[in-house]
Calponin-homology (CH) domain-containing protein
Amino acid sequence: MAASRATKSGFAAEAQRKIMSKYNEEHAQEVLVWIRAVTGDDIPTSGDMDTLYETLKDGTLLCKLVNELKPGSVKRVNTSTMAFKCMENINNFLAAATTLGVPTQEQFQTVDLWERQNLNSVVICLQSLGRKGGNFGKPSIGPKEASKNVRQFTDEQLKQGDAIISLQYGSNKGATQSGINFGNTRHM
């Protein structure tokens, strides 16, 4: 059970409404369908907030997910429903997500899921992880990740580039400062 907090009011309530308004049920459903495909668990795939929260809140499914992508990512998954054990699962998932290549700016904080503060950021993190699925031989979601395109130039090719004057720099032919008035002119 999540920690209970006093209901927000004023600016805090407005900020929370704004955060919750960004939640997209279609994206959440896509993520849940992907988790089901990777883990093989028979989980509900409705994209509403309640389903997402109830499915992921204890962190065990998240740990199983990263262990399916890369075995041994989370060494020990807590099955206890005690709050600190569930939050430890979520933290272990986030640490594994980092090692699997999910950028920190696309990750959520533990309280975003555990206290249901920002479920949209949970979906964003899982979408980012979902794009990496193909790197581990599993199904992926979203656009294909770009791959490196490293180019090797010889010294001769690099020297040829020094001799070319790029027209991107433009031309200064006929450039004068006439007609340019900066600031206020003197009126007489």
Observations:
- The mean pLDDT is 85.
- Residues 10-136 form a domain with the Actin-binding Protein, T-fimbrin; domain 1 fold (CATH 1.10.418.10).
